[in-house]
Amino acid sequence: SYSFFxxxxxxxxxxxxxxxxxxxxxxxxxxxxxxxxxxxxxxxxDQAIKQLELLAANSWKKEQxxxxxxxxIPVEEKFKSYPETDxxxxxxxxxxxxxxxxxxxxxxxxxxxxxxFVLFGIYMSVKNSDANLSFFEAILSCGKQEFLGEFSxxxxxxxxxxxxxxxxxHT
Length: 171
Known about the structure:
The chain has helices spanning 15-20, 26-30, 37-43, 46-66, 75-80, 86-96, 104-126, 135-140, 145-169, and strands spanning 2-6, 9-13. Helix 7 packs antiparallel against helix 9. By secondary structure, it is mainly alpha-helical. The mean pLDDT is 86. The radius of gyration is 25 Å and the shape is elongated.
């Protein structure tokens, strides 16, 4: 089994968590016996962090019991000993300003922005297009609207991919 450190607590990863972690078990191999606090906070939702902190509390309790500690130290005390890094300070400021809260207006804007590039690209590709030009001829004649259209479609699809990625984090 694997273990990593989260806020100075050695977190033991059981077989169930290794099999069911959405990011796979490779990440546990990468952070084996290393501090992963900032990476965990950066890549996980508040709900996932709360679950991890429960797991860390359980690991911390078992670690203390294994060495015969009579009066168990709460995991919150152990967490406090973790230094507040620049990243954690910046994240705290961003949270206080509400920058992580979803905004329907922003999501609608991103959807129209991304889809707009695709639609604009389709329009530019078919408007007065010269069907006799090959793809490479269109690229070599960089002034042609077909190339602008193809580029816009590609950029729009790229943006839509990131949008889908972002939305998958919110569900």
